[in-house]
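ugh ok fine here u go
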Amino acid sequence: MPDKKLEFDLEGIDYDKLNTEADFKKEAKRLLPAAMNMAGSKVAEAFWKTTHKSLGLTNSQKKDFIKEAEIEFAKSPKECVRVEKMLIAKLKEGKRKHRSKE
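structure:
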């Protein structure tokens, strides 16, 4: 489960084009692959820190462990939905901030 405080790269978003719920969902879908990789990596890093010694894994295995965990995380429909919802919330927050700057 990803941390609710994950920061997503939302630079270059054209907030003027995000007006309907469908617009936000479409943009979140576009951003989802990169967000899933990032979230999977963060989850794997946290898991690695707390369990690699008890699993008998060495630091030389870390890169492969993280990559495999990213792949497995991205396969989870539940996590995809969760990260997509987080993206939509962040996009809406960005839209509000964008409006207040105008």
